[in-house]
Amino acid sequence: MLDEKRFAKTAQREVIHNLILENRKKLTLSGIEDVDCFDEDSITLFTDTGTLTIRGAQLHINKLSVESGEVTIEGEIDSLVYTDGDTHKGHGFLSRLFR
Q1: Coil, strand, or helix at residue 95?
Q2: What whole-number distance in Å separates Cα of residue 96 and Cα of residue 2?
Q3: H or E segment and range at residue 67
Q4: What is the Cα–Cα distance from 2 to 97, expressed in whole angstroms?
Q5: How far apart are CA 99 and CA 95, in angstroms?
Q6: CA 30, CA 35: separation in Å to the nearest integer?
Q7: Beta strands of the chain (E only): which ranges?
Q8: What is the band of 21 on the pLDDT scale with cuts at 50, 70, 90?
Q9: SS3 annotation, 26-52
Q10: Contacts of 13 (CB under 8 A, 6+ apart)
Q11: Which residues neighbour 54 within 8 Å (Cβ) at sequence distance 6 or greater?
Q12: For the chain, first and last CA: distance in Å?
C-alpha cells in the first residue's frame, strides 16, 4: 500500500521541458525522455510535449544524463522543430542501447 502511494506521487510529478540556446552554438535541454537518432546534421529527441528535431552542422552531444533528462548539444544550430504525436517511448537510441 505504501509503495502504491509513493508510485502515484512519482507518476503525478510533472516533467518540465526547457531549452536554452546560446548564440546558436550551444543548446541545453531538460525534460528529455529519450534520444531517437543523431548525426552531425540532425538530432531527434523525445519529450513529453512531442518530438524535437534539431538541425544544423557539426552537431555533437556533449552531455547526456539519462537520470535527469538533461542534454547539451554544441555545433551550428540552424533549426528546432517540434512535432506533435506519439513520442515512441521505448523505441529510441537509449532504449536500444540498454536492452
Answers
A1: helix
A2: 33
A3: none
A4: 33
A5: 6
A6: 12
A7: 18-22, 26-30, 32-38, 42-47, 50-65, 70-83
A8: very high
A9: EEEEECEEEEEEECCCEEEEEECCEEE
A10: none
A11: 27, 42, 43, 44, 45, 73, 77, 79, 80
A12: 30
Beta strand 42-47 pairing with 32-38: antiparallel
The pLDDT tens digits of the residues spanning 52-88 come to: 999 999 999 999 997 899 999 999 999 999 998 554 5
Task: Dig out the grid coordinates for 11 from the structure.
Answer: 507518476
> Which residue type, as a one-letter code, is found at position 69?
G
Chain centre to alpha carbon of residue 88: 12
Which grid cell sits at 89? 517511448
